[in-house]
Design a protein that fits this description.
Nucleotidyltransferase, domain 5, 3 domains, single chain
Length: 376
């Protein structure tokens, strides 16, 4: 570095060298190691497989290298890219996500919308779900007087971080505060219960004897067909799941009611010889019937804990029922009801064989539904 001197003014000299040092540090700054979330890494690795050009692949590899803590100089030597190019890739990813890295616009063209207009559009799309880019193009022209092609709208949406997917159905009357209160009480119960006490999540399920089309990999230009059943027979299940032991107590009945619930309680008591059985369940009318109340008066080892209204998201056994539906009906055709029923019961009675698949699914990592932040 050149040795500049501004005379006897030591304060000016000190300030000058401080600025130079700061500029040197800034020029070598890089993102903190491990800045990518698990989902971000997965998206980048999947995106790398879809790259059509070397530029796109280099951009993704640069971000993954930065996440590992590699300095710009090392990455530059590895990928044979200039320092400024690497910094541009990181800025594009930071502000626009993977879609900017995968875009075909190598020159980084200027958007037709200004920064404020893009922000207005982003806020609008946050509260309005359009079914097609054409509808969004109509909105943009009305709101800003700017015409976009369908392809142009698709690129614009990608640059804003949007993807085409369905919203998730949630109960419109769910109460966030009551859900939080239940979760707090659940963890307090876990902390204070004795070693012999157990907590179960209970609910009924009615898998229908029919196939259900689901997304899957099908060769381009080909169409697969899935047979369906004409009947509407169901298997009526009543079950309780203990997260601590990953134990399922299950029964199949003609219908789910107070009597079948009491029979399930008896099964739980037979398996659990000591301690309290805390049964977490929804607010079905038969759970609160006089018949069950009388049974609980003489069976003090069972205590029911009711979920907040409109909160099936807090009942962990619902995840097991979705898992069952996926295994038994997604892209699967079983002609005879008796075979379908045997398969359903066989899976549930041998649930231990799916322990690895259920290990991360069946946990009390609750998801809270807040209708205030849902689409109306």
């Amino acid at each position: 570095m050149a040795n500049f001197n501004f005379g006897d003014n030591q304060a000016i000299n000190n300030t000058y060298f401080l600025v130079i040092n700061l500029m040197f540090v800034a020029s070598n700054m890089r993102p903190l190691e491990g800045f990518l979330a698990i989902e971000g890494k997965r998206a980048l690795k999947q995106g790398h497989k879809r790259c059509k050009t070397a530029r796109q692949a280099d951009g993704i590899k640069a971000i993954l290298c930065l996440d590992k803590g590699m300095p710009y100089g090392a990455i530059s030597g590895l990928l044979l890219l200039g320092d400024s190019t690497l910094r541009r890739y990181y800025a594009q990813y930071k502000h626009h996500g993977i879609y900017k890295l995968l875009s075909d616009d190598g020159k980084g063209g200027v958007s037709k919308l200004s920064g404020n207009e893009r922000l207005t559009l982003d806020n609008h799309l946050g509260s309005h779900t359009y079914l097609s880019p054409k509808e969004i193009a109509v909105y943009i022209e009305k709101a800003f007087g700017i015409s976009y092609t369908i392809a142009g709208v698709a690129c614009l949406l990608h640059s804003l971080g949007y993807s085409y997917k369905k919203p998730r159905h949630v109960p419109g009357k769910a109460n966030k505060e009551k859900q939080e209160e239940f979760i707090k009480g659940h963890h307090e119960l876990k902390a204070k219960k004795s070693e012999t006490d157990k907590i179960y999540f209970m609910d009924g399920c009615h898998p229908q004897h029919n196939s259900q089309p689901a997304y899957g990999w099908i060769k381009k230009g080909k169409q697969k067909e899935l047979k369906s059943n004409t009947g509407r027979k169901r298997v009526n299940l009543n079950g309780a799941y203990n997260l601590e032991d990953h134990e399922l107590v299950i029964r199949e009945d003609e219908s789910i009611n107070s009597q079948s619930t009491i029979e399930l309680f008896k099964q739980i008591s037979q398996r659990q010889k000591a301690g309290m059985s805390y049964i977490i369940c929804g607010n079905a009318r038969y759970y609160k019937s006089n018949l069950i109340k009388r049974y609980l008066e003489t069976n003090k080892r069972i205590k029911m804990v009711f979920l907040p209204p409109y909160s099936p998201n807090l009942n962990i056994i619902e995840r097991l029922w979705r898992f069952l539906k996926k295994k038994m009906t997604y892209n699967k055709y079983i002609e005879k009801y008796i075979e379908f029923k045997e398969n359903v019961m066989g899976l549930l009675e041998n649930i231990d064989t799916y322990k690895n698949e259920l290990k991360t699914l069946m946990t009390d990592n609750f998801q809270i539904v807040d209708p205030k932040f849902s689409y109306s």
